[in-house]
Amino acid sequence: MSKPTNIMLVGVGGQGIVLAGEVLAQVLMLAGHDVKKSEIHGMAQRGGTVRSDVRFGETVFSPTIPPGQADILLAFEQLEALRHLPQVVTGGLVIASAERIVPTTAHLGPNPYPDDAMARIRGAGYRLQEVDAPALAAQAGNPRTAGTCLLAALAWHLDLPEEVWDRALHDAYPKKILDVNLRAFALAREATQPASS
Amino acid sequence: MSGSQPKRLLLSGNEAIARGAVEAGVRFAAAYPGTPSTEILETIAAHTEIACEWSPNEKVAVEVAFGAALGGARALASMKHVGLNVAADPLMTISYTGVNGGLVIVSADDPGMHSSQNEQDNRHYARFAKVPLLEPSDSQECKDFLIEAFALSEEYDTPVLLRTTTRISHGRSLVVLGEPLPLAPRGFVRDQAKYVMIPAHARRRHAVVEERLVRLRDLANVTRLNRVELGDNKIGIIASGVAYQYVKEACPQASVLKLGMPYPFPGHLVRDFAAAVERLFVVEELDPFLEDQVRALGIECTGKERFSLLGELDPLAVAAGVSGAQPALPPEPEGLPMRPPVMCPGCPHRGVFEVLRKLKVIATGDIGCYTLSVLPPLRVMDTCVCMGASIGAAHGLEMALGDACNVVGVIGDSTFVHGGIAPLLDIVYNQGTSTIIILDNRTTAMTGRQDHPATGRTARGDETFRLNLQAVCRAVGVEDVRVVDPYDLEAVEKHVKAALAHRAPSVIIADRPCVLLDRNALGEPLTVDEELCTACQTCLQLGCPALSLGAEGPKGRRKARIVSELCAGCHLCARVCPKEAIQHAAGGAS
Predict the structure, then answer these.
(1) How many CA atoms lie within 13 A of B128 on its CB side?
(2) What pTM, to 2 d.p., does this model score?
(3) What kind of architecture, by CATH, is found in domain B349-511?
């Protein structure tokens, strides 16, 4: 039995990580894969670190990604990208938003917010794709579409039919915000095409 | 079935349980919100064919569900693990009375304590109450097992406990939908010897419980809920729930005895399985619930010496436990600032805790978002045990320290209705003088904003009677009831001081809705005037996520900055600023 592929979505409570994970899981299901997804609700979501695990393949057992076995890290925020880096397999792919959200602890505690997160990720031997999701989302017309922009960047690495993304986005968003999300997806898809593709 | 492909959906365990309720023909469901169980009733609420209710607490939920089952309806009560402590009283005796329509109680446990005050293992309740226990391993089983649980409940005349954990309740996996069962209503049949548990009746019913347990044990040995998956005979593993998934991933070659119905314990099945393998492991999270029962059969096994009593397992931990090696865990990131959960920008609780910190009180706490006030920089909360304990503990501290003690009990509105009224009555009855603050944000915020009796809306959002918290406090005998806007720091301080000085019970209701209830109600974002800011960082001590560090100020200290996208415009920082440096973005001191 082939090993499942592990995608870990991380960021800060309120950034829409759970919803983006939902869309991703739907896409993978529509593409015919077995899919499992796991995250934490409740107290953990009050502005704290949020993590959503999505796993797909022929058969998926554990709903969570075993420690250190994420193939792809989709980070909605720089500090969270850095924090979850050890969860990624050696040489794995990190897609990281340029977003920075500074926690209060960085002001009051001993550890300041790192200024060199992207350089540290590259230096640690991971493949890094930096996505200016806040700028792309603003360009699309709604800052809350940053998650959709990150999914568009991820889409280049998953080899799934374009129509399943379209269908999953249609299923996930209510009419009111569907168009802006479709726009964000198209915009970001264009902007994030890897050089080798 | 119409001949087309059966519909397949990606559902969370909780959504699958709700779907199971629809397919099982459940007619009544009750719950009190609690992570990780909340979405079960929220999902059921979308199905109008099922009558559903948020209950004031879990005990009420089980009692009402029991009544519905007596009336012949299939009934469901769902709760988090600690909720079953509250509901344990009816459960223990409903085991004696049995049911009429099926009755299933769902307990969603939280190993790892992602959002809980303890990680008790509720499988023990099945054994304690002598009722069958089902443990699903994914969303499909959540649905299928719930339907099975109702059949069992009616066939064996017993309540059934269905136990999930966070990873099952909040994990999503594929579910094939079925058709709802057509069920004829059973109606109520009077049977006093069965339902009226006076000692003479209860003695006879206890014998029925024991006899039922024997029959259920026979069933457990043959039910398809328990199955052997034969692999390599060198290693055999007994597992249930999410641990089964970890075992399948970590040890694909091993033989596995999967227990979907772990209680009553299927002794014959386990004995046969143990005989067929060279080495037996029991893999389970938390307590050695299965392991102890294996050992009681006189069978050697490896269990808790390899698999922790604490927290969750994962495939790495299982692989390591079976091989005896240390798991190769990734390193912990170092030198990074933590990002703990925090109270939201504009949270009405923050003002109250700012005052309590200033007044250096002992604050007995309760269960809700406000427990976050224990974290830096506020660090206010001194206790947190269970729902309602803030009020009882405040009274107890007064009994120990005398009535001049600076103790304030702090409790939320939903939590007060859940378990706070009786201890408040206790203070009045026993002539205490405690000061209690009810943080009335008009919702059950922590679990995602569910309604409760003091919001005036039902589980389906319909208007209903709204419990008046002031009137309740007065009705139990508290004469000194004050209402204050928690954004008004001076007023909060004045009332807390007055209530503490008052030699009689006092209740202060901090009255302001949760900021997440109505985003339109938020004020304009504020900004810091860098000319006026002296970098004293007093405002940062509020722990508001919208407050950040900006330009360099005197002595290398940095001035405050407000992240306008996050600012809710609550003005709390402007009120604590000694230099009036925080103002509206448009200009002009606020």
Answers:
(1) 15
(2) 0.96
(3) 3-Layer(aba) Sandwich (3.40)
